[in-house]
Amino acid sequence: MTNPTIKEAIDSITPQVIESGSYPEDIAFLLGERLNYSPTQLKLNQESELSESQYRQFKADVKKLIQGQSPQYILEYSYFYGRKLTVNSDVLIPRYETEELVAFVTSDYQRQSTGKLLDIGTGSGAISLVLSQELSSSWEISASDISQEALAIAKTNFKSHGCEIKTIKSDLFKAIEGRFDVIVSNPPYIKTTETAVMDETVLNNEPNIALFAGVDGLDFYREFAKYVDDYLNPTGAFYLEFGYEQKEALRALFGHYLPNYDITFKNDLAGHPRMMRGVKQ
Q1: CATH code reported for the domain at 91-280
Q2: Which residues are annotated as a binding site for S-adenosyl-L-methionine?
Q3: Which family does the record assign (predicted)?
């Protein structure tokens, strides 16, 4: 008995994946990654027969997908800003929107030869890793997280990409010492009341501590706004990602706690306000 072709394998399992509530496009993504094919290569080779080991891996991956696992956790890696990063359920899967936050920081500091930067809630280390490579090599980069398990993943990624980044176990600023030129974070900002409208794959796989921030989703920002000035150099700046409906609430919050800061909001590529920068006036 011969094994199925790529097309036959995908077509045969698609109805079950749809019925499970998972995304059918993830089937092709997983298979393409296992075969080291781009989406175009996968289509061009769709009549190619899978080997025994390839088909066995395909069935194992799809079983996990049907059970509700995220494809990145199945593969144990994800892509961010052109880098391949190790991920597991201890860390948030890096999002494309966060690449725009990295680009925001890079555009402001790519010509500055040196400085100190802190990435709060680093998770997989995606933000600090990319910034350590996009900014001048003289920058001193630190990455903090409340989770020791997340820091272990970050350290793995830093090592595999040859990055010298200091890691700190800290609940926001509690274990942070010194001042920085840049503080950046993609913090938890989802309301605890929004679970009913969230993707089940996210709820069932990704760490709640990296997702939720109280009834209004602003718990992190309140604590951050209270103390960030104590950790920034006089000409320093902070950069934050937030939910697209939180702009006005954050404008009021930071206006209250940091009236002497110039706050700038930036839209993402979809036109939604998703990033902010604060600079002391």
Answers
A1: 3.40.50.150
A2: 121-125, 145, 186
A3: Belongs to the protein N5-glutamine methyltransferase family. PrmC subfamily.
